[in-house]
Design goal:
This protein is of the alpha+beta class. It has five helices and five strands. Helices cover 36% and strands 24% of the residues.
Length: 174
């Protein structure tokens, strides 16, 4: 038998890693070097993403995609990435849902924006969403609030002078 016909397992494994990198644009997880730039040091945090979007439902797809990318960069398990995406979407939606009788101006006209920050701490991910808060925001007795509490570790909300700040704190796997 000729050696050219039966490649050894190590060569096949290297070819699989190379193929995955070419097809997906990413190296194989086993061969990837740790992303040292994503690790917080000395109790500080690393701002992974800061994103400002128009406060309109048409921009939620961009927000959801950003949340998924952050989860992927942190190598979170798929269910946790999905929960993060859902929580960020619900957090942003809470700023967009009008109260009955409250008629906000169109976001493009009013200049309303949502600002999101994804901060990586040593043991958790903190996502902060800031934007103009509707009256009596947040609705802590609503389904959206319960959903947030179910999919992330901790939810904090405050409203100061018409500006709402919603913070999601999600523990990271060790």
């Amino acid at each position: 038998m000729d050696n050219r016909e039966a490649p050894d397992a190590e060569a096949g494994s290297a070819m699989m890693r190379y193929t995955r990198q070419v097809v997906t644009g990413r190296p194989d997880r086993k061969s990837r070097a740790p992303r040292s730039s994503l690790f917080a040091r000395n109790g500080a945090f690393v701002r992974m993403v800061a994103l400002t979007v128009v406060a309109d439902q048409d921009y939620l797809a961009l927000v959801r995609t950003s949340a998924m990318q952050v989860g992927a960069l942190l190598d979170l398990p798929l269910p946790q990435v999905t929960d993060l995406r859902l929580a960020v979407d619900e957090a942003c939606t809470s700023f967009l849902v009008p109260e009955s009788g409250w008629q906000p101006e169109r976001p493009e006209v009013a200049g309303a924006r949502l600002r999101l920050c994804f901060d990586r701490y040593i043991d958790h991910l903190r996502v902060t969403v800031r934007g103009p808060a509707p009256p009596s925001w947040p609705k802590r007795d609503g389904l959206g609030w319960e959903l947030l509490r179910a999919v992330v570790g901790e939810v904090r909300a405050e409203s100061v002078g018409g500006l709402g700040i919603l913070t999601l704190i999600d523990p990271l796997p060790s």
